[in-house]
Amino acid sequence: MTLRGRFGKEMDDRAKAYTASTHFDRRLYKHDIASSIAHVRMLAKQGIIPEKDAELIIMSLISIREEIEQGSFEFKEELEDIHMNIEARLVEKIGEVGAKLHTARSRNDQVATDMRLFTKEAISETVTGIKDLQRALLHVAEDNKRLVMPGYTHMQRAQPVLFAHHLLAYFEMFQRDIERFEQCYQRTDVMPLGSGALAGVTYPIDRDFLAKELGFSKVSTNSMDAVSDRDFVIEYIAAAGLTMMHISRLTEEIIIWSTAEFGFVEIDDAFATGSSIMPQKKNPDVAELARGKTGRVYGHLMSALTTMKSLPLSYDRDMQEDKECLFDAVDTLLSTLEALAPTVATLRVKADRISRAAETDYMLATDIADYLVKKGIPFRQAHTIVSNLVRYATDIGKALHDVDLIDYRRFCPDFENDVKSITLESSLAARNCTGGTAPEEVEKALAAARKTLNGKKD
Amino acid sequence: MTLRGRFGKEMDDRAKAYTASTHFDRRLYKHDIASSIAHVRMLAKQGIIPEKDAELIIMSLISIREEIEQGSFEFKEELEDIHMNIEARLVEKIGEVGAKLHTARSRNDQVATDMRLFTKEAISETVTGIKDLQRALLHVAEDNKRLVMPGYTHMQRAQPVLFAHHLLAYFEMFQRDIERFEQCYQRTDVMPLGSGALAGVTYPIDRDFLAKELGFSKVSTNSMDAVSDRDFVIEYIAAAGLTMMHISRLTEEIIIWSTAEFGFVEIDDAFATGSSIMPQKKNPDVAELARGKTGRVYGHLMSALTTMKSLPLSYDRDMQEDKECLFDAVDTLLSTLEALAPTVATLRVKADRISRAAETDYMLATDIADYLVKKGIPFRQAHTIVSNLVRYATDIGKALHDVDLIDYRRFCPDFENDVKSITLESSLAARNCTGGTAPEEVEKALAAARKTLNGKKD
Amino acid sequence: MTLRGRFGKEMDDRAKAYTASTHFDRRLYKHDIASSIAHVRMLAKQGIIPEKDAELIIMSLISIREEIEQGSFEFKEELEDIHMNIEARLVEKIGEVGAKLHTARSRNDQVATDMRLFTKEAISETVTGIKDLQRALLHVAEDNKRLVMPGYTHMQRAQPVLFAHHLLAYFEMFQRDIERFEQCYQRTDVMPLGSGALAGVTYPIDRDFLAKELGFSKVSTNSMDAVSDRDFVIEYIAAAGLTMMHISRLTEEIIIWSTAEFGFVEIDDAFATGSSIMPQKKNPDVAELARGKTGRVYGHLMSALTTMKSLPLSYDRDMQEDKECLFDAVDTLLSTLEALAPTVATLRVKADRISRAAETDYMLATDIADYLVKKGIPFRQAHTIVSNLVRYATDIGKALHDVDLIDYRRFCPDFENDVKSITLESSLAARNCTGGTAPEEVEKALAAARKTLNGKKD
Amino acid sequence: MTLRGRFGKEMDDRAKAYTASTHFDRRLYKHDIASSIAHVRMLAKQGIIPEKDAELIIMSLISIREEIEQGSFEFKEELEDIHMNIEARLVEKIGEVGAKLHTARSRNDQVATDMRLFTKEAISETVTGIKDLQRALLHVAEDNKRLVMPGYTHMQRAQPVLFAHHLLAYFEMFQRDIERFEQCYQRTDVMPLGSGALAGVTYPIDRDFLAKELGFSKVSTNSMDAVSDRDFVIEYIAAAGLTMMHISRLTEEIIIWSTAEFGFVEIDDAFATGSSIMPQKKNPDVAELARGKTGRVYGHLMSALTTMKSLPLSYDRDMQEDKECLFDAVDTLLSTLEALAPTVATLRVKADRISRAAETDYMLATDIADYLVKKGIPFRQAHTIVSNLVRYATDIGKALHDVDLIDYRRFCPDFENDVKSITLESSLAARNCTGGTAPEEVEKALAAARKTLNGKKD
After folding, report:
1. Which residues of A are catalytic?
2. Does C172 contact D at CB distance below 8 Å?
């Protein structure tokens, strides 16, 4: 079986090696066989091939799948790709009947179909993986739901927040990621099979039957677009890039929180590594690798976008480059989620150090300015007054609540005794509008998150 | 008015110049004033500032907007950003009352709100622009709906298709782009205002009122996420990247079709350029620039993703870098759509050259193989037979329909006289399943496209 | 003056706006005029145009340059680009004689020449800027040359190092950057002028004369390559990307060191910013922006690479996209260096906190393992012994030097009293091979750095 | 042998799988063993370990290398990386003596050394591969050195050039690539071994000896930079990205030239592929894949740059991500060069079609304008005159040399009979300054290229 009927000579070995894809697209064997079975079933139903030929082909395809899964199938790189490997084996097993499999289809619509089946599966696993990470975050948030920490902007202590509130910010990010993946799923869930090489096929096929068999909810409506569209690949990788970006932020924080200087969390021994030379070291390698692998997924996104740039219709061989970047993006994201979720779930939160940090550094200054505003002072002036007060306190090395009221009044006569009743607790409690860090709001957010994870949408 | 109350000295000029953003974020003046007006209205409604102060501030903000639009506003780079420029002018105009504007908000939630207002607007314009391009494509397709052209794979002539079918493939791509932008819109349509610097605010604000005033359909549910989320920026640029990729494919084809060698189309003089040195030249510069600008949008995507990588919560100044890449991505995409749509709409389609090209190069070979299959020969064997036949025809320099039947039969005895009735027309007509290039299917697709453009979703 | 002689109509406004580049390439006016002057001088020398015409043109070009520099020149976007703007003004001033300027050249070789002149200049400024940053680093290193700090791997305290040693690591990075820019300079220093549109010109020009006039040390040797080569643009941006990567590492450390938790450095007030809402804040915005702008330069690299992908020879209009990404990469890098150098130079190093941090966390564990090795114990075993010792010390909450010798011996009988003489000082002093952190080595490295900065290569 | 002495429990399987690198870094076995042998030799020479221990270790390392090369070595993913796999096997073979191997080094300097050894080797192979491609180009150029073709700008026929001149433009590009790789080599050729984990080592090692043994010409001068520097990885990938960009331009042209419409070249059957469905197809898959893989290398560049962004000193585990992108960039570039060189060398140049194309489309218009200039007409006016002449000729459907002289004169009275002696040949011959397409210049360029390939620098 060869596609080289019109050629005068064999392909050069270097060209063969360069164009062959079996070593990576063999991964699609399951999807390829599934779509072949559906295809053959349809061909028989439509009377394009005899029913008994179809039965024989299907049985043989099933046994080929078993051979592959049991490791007895011999992949041949010289057969170019997974499709030709399977087809060749089929002909080897059942002869001429097997040569009917490729009726009314082309590798162009076939591979597009396989890729979409693969991507749909990958998206489902990805969503499950993200939820596991959300669950881990929620678990740690719930376990520490009253813990106050310094909220940071510019990595400087800014205003007190609940530790749970901080973690729930990540829950939100990952929820958006899930939404994006679900929408990507919808655009992936369109069947190209039946588009032939580029123009459709000349047989009376039943594409709706095919779609039903293969679990697609729509069929493609332009054959040239169908064989040349890889938007779904790029869209998956773009969504994965955003998820990795969120993960890079979370892991950066875990790494920083694990430093001796912060000491906010300790990574469980089961998720930490040692050093080949420094006996005292305990390193947050899972978090570092997750952060580092962000670049890898970004790279795949650039790769896929660049490869598709300026390709004329319809199929061009450049598009074979869609696979490895997608596969690796999927593997990277799934393995990162798998390793990171338990790393997060088992984090030891050092509540003492965290809450002690929350008590320093004038983090109630905004509340004091707000206090003045409520006395009628325009905010900008209040801001300036408290800035000066803070500067004074810094100079004399005192915390704000240790500064005497009389000194407060030197900066503004409106200060009264009750300014001293501004505390971490009152500060938190006051931020009680939707999305604020007030304990009651965070409690609601935790409940909502729990519901999202357990809800019907799961 | 200064934010430097606690600092001992003025900012160094180099630092000031480096951190200032007025020269690019002034573009947000309209959104900034709109959100300030809504904010002030809410502050008054909630009794946080007096009604009459609110009225004065609002009137003044409106007049500041006019100053800006009339060009009489003096932007000061040293005031750092658009927000402080407007606030400073407000205080200049109405004194102390203006200093109340910044009550119960922070630049962090303010700028996030402005950016979302801007992005929502940009998405709407983008969708309109894409539709214009779709309309141009549809126009040319309808004008040439019976024109047969060679369909290509690997840039080699493959099977005949309708020119309209080819153009409609692009219609599909752009339809997916619209869908993505609309979903991006939904995630952008969430109001961060009221999140304060990071933790919420200590005033009894009414976020639902704010959202309604500003036309947001949702309010954010975690203040830390709200001020540090730029997913919507990245998502816009990613969607723009995909759209530009589609545009790069279309323009690549226009450029190739405009070569002397293809000669399939001619660009209207109004959209072509000449040469500074070669008097005979007519160049497809709009198409080339559109293709070239693809890289620009990809670059902005990389830029935004990289900038956000590994940023700890919540706001970091790195995030100021979200603006220029978004602005330029929006401008690039909108101007490309604007220039490309009429370039496409005015293309002169050289039907003669196209249809002549469709008649050559053995493009009916697949149909002849299918012919044999229908006589009972397995497809792979039919493929080999026709490959040999094509090779023979090439060697003797004949088109397939000029080869004698007796010679056909030397390759396969099943060939009969009716093989000669396979024509471009029969080939097209046979590809009549959903998405195929048969005239009836393309007619349906044109109608569907027209409906999509005119439909309620417009 | 128009290039549209053969066209039947004017260019559409949308196409005109889309293809015009005056708003950004006007920046090349100086280089354009310089290369025009050299060109005209050569034309006269070769007798291609009369000497007196040349004189008139040159004088007029000089006065046009003055008009531009004084702001009285009226740039017209409809004249498409800087070259046509200048040429049109020339003709306006001196009539027909001005129309001789474009003899024996094309915009293709002209713009390539301008871009190379610009890039050569940019490289020189970049190298100067990097040296300024190196000088700042060296200054801080020298001011703190005995200061011991914890050396980190995985952001965990690892082994003591000199603070100066840490800073000098950056000096090395920037030295490699300079080397790269200098090599990029050499490849940029090749003159394309005289290549015409793509094929050379039909006049007896003297390219060596041109090169000498313009300060190029080589002339290009293939006209098609000369007009279509933008390697030097990409190479500049790639080198800038690496420099920004180094800067992002340095600024990340400055940001982390400025946290309350680390407290290793304090940014000078002149290079710090405040908050619009939190009166106590002092933010390291210069460092954050520098870190954030890394993404911007990476993006430009991606942009330039993508734009050039798959462009057929020779000039294509896509290449107009080479300018804005280069200009912005240059501006970004130069402004970052300019703002960062004094930020570094004025850093307040909090020596107390740094040296105190160096005394904790078992950072001498490697030295103790090495101690055992010197007693004859294989390193891997020594590593295990000290690991166990550290674990014991952690459990009982003691520093290693506070653990009793008798306890040491429970882990290994080879421990003797002299193990207690392992100190920070002895640890540092022992690392005295080339590149090690021993004070004598660092002293040498400081001297070498000083020499590099002041050396002939400056 | 474990690095987990201080940990209370085993590593979780998910973390182990996630952090393990054996499956890809095993590729460094040769370099790892080479550097271990040099290291041990040095340790013995310096009296740090006994000579006979060194001999035993070296012999065992050699036999381990044989085990690996013969396929009998059992790689264990749970041993984390190639270094630990080899060390563990060593200890298994020779017991306690093997545990001395890791004296005075760390995995940090070890892996940096291995990576540099690998990269140096990769660069040498890359340069050889590029030269092979240059040789193929030169071969085709020399075989067709008098062949005239249309030179293109904007893909429109512009001016006649020699086909050899066009091919030599690529020779130039690849020559620059070689230069870049050679400079990258120089920066890679610096030995980090002896830098320890980050601070140097406490043993009296001899780094110059090590460098000599391993063939490095320099030793690193700052230990922290040495273990955290991956510039050489990024620089290799950036240079590879530029080379792939050049390849994408060449292959784009090969693909376009292979279309039915251009028909300038035909790919040899040994380097072309067929279609699974269309029996007549002959596809340029090698060229398409080469073009497509450009995106892949760009992606790796983005990946490496992003991963290194913002990493604090010194080693962070993120840096493990340096390997796969480098390995794949090397493999992609080498295999592309290997497949492309013979594809180019065996191209069938269809001289008839090419030279026929050169005779059309007013490509001598520039020469005619130059003709007028030589009669004293300013170039811009000459340009306009010839534009109008071309338009006239187009309208009446004539080639310029078929237009009557009397008609020429209607556009400009300076036309005389000799305007008709402007031919392709005269046009080419006139472009005889350095780098022009005149046959004599191209002959010189061919000779220079031959010399470059055969020169001492080979």
Report:
1. 154, 275
2. yes
Specify the length of chain B in residues.
458
Question: What residues 382-401 of chain A have any CB closer than 8 A to a CB of chain B?
Answer: 383-384, 386-388, 390-391, 394
**What residues of chain B lie within 8 A of the CB of A384, using their CB?**
2, 5
CATH architecture label of D13-103? Orthogonal Bundle (1.10)
The residue of chain A with its CA nearest to that of D304 is A295
Average pLDDT, chain A: 95
ipTM over 0.90: yes
For D:399-418, CB contacts with C below 8 A are none
Binary contact (C84, B298; C-beta < 8 A): no
User: What average pLDDT values come out for chain D (458 residues) when binned by 10 residues?
Assistant: 68 94 96 98 97 97 98 93 95 93 95 98 98 98 97 96 98 98 98 97 97 98 98 98 98 98 96 82 94 98 98 97 98 98 98 94 90 92 91 90 93 94 95 97 98 74
Q: What residue segments make up the domains of chain B, in order of their start?
A: 13-103, 108-148+159-356, 360-453
Alpha carbon B120 to chain centroid, angstroms:
14
Ramachandran assignment for D443, one of left (phi > 0), alpha (psi -120 to 50 degrees), beta (any other):
alpha
Residues 6+ apart with CB under 8 A from A203: A43, A46, A48, A103, A104, B370
Q: Does A89 touch chain D (CB under 8 A)?
A: no
| C102–B276 C-beta distance less than 8 A | yes
Confidence band of C134 (pLDDT split at 50, 70, 90): very high
Looking up tokens 């609940």, which residue turns up? A162
Average pLDDT rounded to a whole number, residues A84-105: 94
- In this prediction, residue A455 carries a pLDDT of 78
Helix (H, G, I), strand (E, B) or coil at C308: helix
Residue A316 contacts B where some CB pair is shorter than 8 Å: yes
pLDDT of C2 higher than 80: no
Superfamily of domain C108-148+159-356: Fumarase/aspartase (Central domain) (1.20.200.10)
Contact between residue A38 and residue A213 where contact means Cβ atoms under 8 Å apart: yes
Q: In 3-state terms, chain B is what percent helix, strand and coil (to 5)?
A: 65, 5, 30
- The pLDDT mean for chain B works out to 95
Tell whether C301 lies on the interface with B, counting CB pairs under 8 A.
yes
Mutate to test the interface with D, among B154, B285, B368 (most CBs of D within 10 A): B154
Contacts of B304 in chain C (CB under 8 A): 295, 299
- Chain B environment of D368 (Cβ under 8 Å): 279
**DSSP designation for B311:** P
Taking the model in full, what pTM does it have? 0.97
Contact C307 B318 (CB under 8 A): no
Question: Regarding the domain delimited by C360-453, which CATH topology (the fold level of the hierarchy) does it fall under?
Answer: Ribonucleotide Reductase Protein R1; domain 1 (1.10.40)
Q: Could you tell me if D305 lies within 8 Å of chain C, comparing CB atoms?
A: yes
Band of the pLDDT at C458, cuts 50, 70, 90?
very low
Question: How many angstroms separate the CA of residue D223 from the nearest CA in chain C?
Answer: 5
- Among C151, C313, C370, the residue with its CB nearest the CB of D224 is C151
Largest Cα separation within chain D, whole Å, is 101
Confidence (pLDDT) at B382:
92
Q: What is the DSSP letter of A158?
A: E
Residues on chain B touching C9 (C-beta within 8 angstroms): 269-270
Q: Which residue has the higher pLDDT, C57 or D360?
A: C57
Contact yes or no for C251/C291 (Cβ under 8 A):
yes
With contact defined as 3+ CB pairs under 8 Å, the chains touching B are A, C, D
All residues of chain C having their beta carbon less than 8 Å from the beta carbon of residue B321 are 289, 292-293, 295-296
Q: Two tokens at D108?
A: 């940090």
Q: Which amino acid is at A27?
A: R
Q: What is the pLDDT of residues C158-212, one digit of tens each?
A: 999 999 999 999 999 999 999 999 999 999 999 999 999 999 999 999 999 999 9
In angstroms, rounded to a whole number, what is the distance separating the alpha carbons of residues A133 and B280? Answer: 64
pLDDT > 90 in chain A, percent: 90
